[in-house]
Structure formats: structure tokens, C-alpha cells
Write a structure and sequence with these properties.
Helix content: 40-55%
Order of helices and strands: EHEEEHEEHH
Strand content: 15-25%
Number of domains: 2
Number of strands: 6
Structural class: alpha+beta
Length: 189
């Protein structure tokens, strides 16, 4: 039986997403396909598979990436799904639980993760500016005593401010994650 779940994970939440996919596998659902917010699972034996996710620079079908993924397949680690982002992709790897110990480290390109987060950061800055503009226009209109629908403008302005606060919080989380990755990259150099 196929099960489709729509769930949002932000790009800095790769570890949480991986844990959730593994939790689904422990309950007998194997990942078959994914989009940005869509996950398709097939019902299987409980705890049959373990999953790892990683960032790879470039597209999924790039030569360097296909060579690396072919190498992993020779080790018994299969590609369950992937999702392309501008300049990078996230690959979801699957192995049998018995052959996929927790200690196994899958190489994830730190530069690709940083670039993906920088792209998300640019989108988030655009969203913040648009929300700021919308909040200002509605607040200005709402404070105009001649305006007959000033309560509607004030309500929309309050909603825009709430969304603005959430967007700024997301931007801060992205910056924190980029900082952590840069520190990790410095350790490995």
C-alpha cells in the first residue's frame, strides 16, 4: 500500500528530516519518492531499512555524482529518492538495517550544503522585504482615519508582521546553520 505524506522540512533541517524518514521505516514504510514537501512511502516490513540523506553539489545526474552514487550502490547502499535544488541536490540513501550500521559515515559535501543554505537565504531576504513592504502599506492605510476599511488594513498588517517575525527567525536559523557548517569545514581542512 502506498502512503503519501505532505510535510515541510526547511533546508537546514536535514537531520530532522532524516530522523523522521527513519522513524517511518521503523514503522514499516520505505521511502520511494520525494519532492520538496511530498514523501511517498511503500508499506514494507518494519525496521527493514535505514536511511541517510546527503547534499551533493550539482545536479543528481551529473557525472561526478553518478560515479559516487554508483560506488555506494556497490557497497549495498541504494538511492531511494532525490530532490534537486538550484546548484545542489539532496539524495536519500537506503540500506538494509542489518547491513547499514549507525557508525557508517556517508560523505556529504559541506560546500553544497552551504550553497543551498545561501540560496535559501537569498529567497528568505526577498520574502522579508516583501512582507515588510506589505506590512508598511497596510499599517499606513489602517492608520488613515479617512479609510473606511481601516480595521481590515490593521488586521492584514498584524498578520504581515507575524509572518515577518517568522521569516526573520528562519533567516537567523539559516545563518546559524551556515556558521556551524563553516566551523565544521574549518575543522576538516
Amino acid at each position: 500500500m502506498r502512503r503519501v505524506i505532505h510535510k515541510l522540512f526547511w533546508i537546514w533541517q536535514l537531520d530532522e528530516e532524516e530522523e523522521w524518514i527513519n522513524e517511518m521505516a521503523r514503522h514499516g514504510y520505505s521511502l520511494e519518492h520525494t519532492g520538496r514537501i511530498t514523501y511517498e512511502f511503500e508499506e514494507t516490513e518494519a525496521d527493514l531499512y535505514k536511511y541517510r540523506s546527503l547534499f551533493l553539489k550539482g545536479s543528481f545526474s551529473g557525472r561526478k555524482n553518478t560515479d559516487y552514487l554508483r560506488f555506494l550502490e556497490e557497497m549495498g547502499i541504494k538511492v531511494a529518492a532525490h530532490c534537486n535544488y538550484p546548484g545542489t541536490c539532496i539524495v536519500y540513501l537506503r540500506g538494509l538495517s542489518s547491513d547499514f550500521p549507525d557508525e557508517i559515515e556517508i560523505y556529504s559535501d559541506i560546500e553544497s550544503r552551504i550553497e543551498a543554505l545561501k540560496t535559501s537565504r537569498a529567497y528568505m531576504i526577498f520574502v522579508i522585504l516583501m512582507l515588510l513592504f506589505a506590512a508598511y502599506i497596510n499599517l499606513y492605510s489602517g492608520l488613515n482615519p479617512v479609510n473606511s476599511i481601516f480595521w481590515l488594513n490593521l488586521t492584514v498588517a498584524a498578520a504581515m508582521i507575524a509572518l515577518l517575525i517568522a521569516a526573520v527567525a528562519a533567516e537567523v536559523k539559516i545563518l546559524i546553520e551556515i556558521s556551524k557548517l563553516k566551523k565544521e569545514r574549518a575543522i576538516h581542512e
